[in-house]
Amino acid sequence: MSREGDEVTVTLPRDRAFHPIAHLVLGGVATRLSLTVDHLDDLRLALDGLLDLPEREGPVTVALRVVGDTLEASVGPFEVDLRGELEDGTSGEVSLRRLLDTVVDRVRLTKRDGGDWVELTKTVRTDV
């Protein structure tokens, strides 16, 4: 992944047993970009928060793309309505939105391919 806009995509079953595969792909991209351990941990937490959402059967896709000094992740599709989960959590409890706002720079919900997709953006150092 040396060229801007390169994308790595993995589609896997929603079963928790397959989450380490998404971690492996994320770790590989992080290594290529010489990301710090802190950036990798932030992205892993965000990814886990999304992969752990209750969902029906069917695959989930994780796409990672480098754009300038940012790493963009797209995760979906989700059949459940994520608007409630991603509304600004101002209560004292730790919500998914609060977690994502803590570990990534931008969270956006989009609709495509028959479901909700969560778009994450994390600013990273890319001097590769």
Could you write a compact summary of the structure shown?
The chain is an alpha+beta fold and about 130 residues long.
Describe what this molecule looks like in 3D.
It is a single chain. By secondary structure, the chain is of the alpha+beta class. It has one domain: Heat Shock Protein 90, CATH 3.30.565.10. Helices cover 32% and strands 32% of the residues. It has four helices and five strands; from the N terminus they run E-H-H-E-E-H-H-E-E. The termini are close together. The mean pLDDT is 86.
List its traits.
five-stranded antiparallel sheet; alpha+beta; 128 residues; 4 helices; Heat Shock Protein 90; 5 strands
Helix/strand order, N-terminal first: EHHEEHHEE
Question: What is the helix fraction of residues, given as a range?
Answer: 25-40%
What's the CATH H-level superfamily name? Histidine kinase-like ATPase, C-terminal domain
Number of strands: 5
> What proportion of the residues form beta strands (DSSP E)?
25-35%
The total number of structural domains is 1
How are the SSEs placed, and which strands pair?
Layout: E1 7-13, H1 19-32, H2 37-51, E2 59-67, E3 70-78, H3 83-86, H4 96-103, E4 106-112, E5 115-123
